[in-house]
């Protein structure tokens, strides 16, 4: 009986070490189901706030439900991947320094230029870093995890993607407000969330699909190339890609953006190796087809 108890204890200890070394379910992102359906990509030509890369307007149909990350990937979740794989990330990240925005050679995902906890979204990660994380997560869970396509991201943003009034933006996202005024930008909304930089994920109200931080906190990498517009966008919601893609699209705005100009239709783009303290990512978990 004693031998059996000792053996069982050893098994539990070994299991605990294995979980620590490889990451456990507690370290993995949760998802919410976003139902299939139509989504309008792009802006009307008469929308004076629209960027040149937001046209033409395209009607896309997402044909399958999406298991969409509840929040951006956190620093703690990303740390589990780094510790399990010894993934090497070069030092250096564009961040807000005392001299303004600059490349800080001492900054990285653990030290992006400001204080963070493990509950904050990971920043200073390139698209290449995100893809490595997703490959590891897919192996660990036995389920395919990937970046959302741009159309999936817009679908997940919900009906509110038609732009929230400023007061709703302050309720739903960490953007440049009175806390950050004159430190990030001189224009700020008349609300005060107490966060100068990133905030812990899910600190603000969720959207219609139970997703947090779809506006503000960090820009999020998506799967699509940034092709300068939607003329070649697939109508089935898959990613807009091509060989030799020099820059990729990002969505969602960050903690640096004043609420007034914030539009969920706005696109950002970066090379896949770029790292910035305003950029993170979130996952999509592929659902089995019936």
TrEMBL record:
Keyword Oxidoreductase recorded: yes
TM region positions: none
InterPro entries named among the record's database cross-references: CTDL_fold, Sulfatase_Mod_Factor_Kinase, SUMF_dom, SUMF_sf
Enzyme class: oxidoreductase
GO molecular function annotations of the record: formylglycine-generating oxidase activity
EC number: 1.8.99.-
Key words of the record: Oxidoreductase, Signal
Chain ranges of the Sulfatase-modifying factor enzyme-like domain: 31-285
UniProt signal peptide: 1-21
Protein name: Sulfatase modifying factor 1 (C-alpha-formyglycine-generating enzyme 1)
Protein's organism: Candidatus Phaeomarinibacter ectocarpi
Lineage of the organism: Bacteria, Pseudomonadati, Pseudomonadota, Alphaproteobacteria, Hyphomicrobiales
């Amino acid at each position: 009986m004693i031998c059996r108890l000792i053996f069982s204890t050893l098994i539990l200890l070994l299991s605990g070490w294995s979980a620590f070394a490889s990451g456990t379910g507690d370290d993995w992102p949760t998802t919410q189901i976003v139902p299939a359906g139509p989504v309008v990509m792009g802006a009307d030509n008469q929308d004076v706030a629209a960027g040149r890369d937001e046209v033409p307007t395209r009607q896309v149909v997402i044909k399958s439900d999406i298991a969409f990350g509840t929040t951006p990937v956190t620093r703690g979740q990303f740390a589990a991947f780094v510790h399990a794989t010894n993934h090497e990330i070069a030092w250096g990240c564009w961040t807000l320094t005392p001299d303004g925005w600059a490349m800080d050679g001492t900054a990285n995902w653990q030290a992006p230029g400001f204080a963070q906890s493990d509950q904050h979204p990971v920043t200073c990660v390139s698209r290449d870093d995100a893809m490595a994380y997703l490959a590891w997560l897919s192996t660990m869970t036995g389920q395919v995890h990937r970046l959302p396509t741009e159309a999936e991201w817009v679908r997940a943003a919900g009906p509110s993607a038609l732009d929230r009034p400023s007061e709703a933006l302050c309720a739903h996202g960490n953007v440049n407000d009175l806390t950050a005024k004159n430190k990030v930008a001189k224009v700020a909304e008349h609300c005060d969330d107490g966060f100068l930089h990133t905030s812990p994920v899910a600190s603000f109200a969720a959207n219609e699909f139970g997703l947090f931080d779809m506006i503000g906190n960090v820009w999020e990498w998506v799967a699509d190339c940034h092709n300068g517009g939607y003329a070649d966008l697939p109508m089935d919601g898959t990613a807009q890609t091509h060989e030799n893609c020099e820059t990729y699209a990002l969505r969602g705005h960050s903690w640096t953006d004043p609420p007034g100009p914030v539009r969920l239709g706005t696109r950002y783009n970066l090379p896949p190796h770029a790292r910035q303290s305003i950029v993170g990512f979130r996952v999509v978990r592929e659902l089995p087809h019936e």
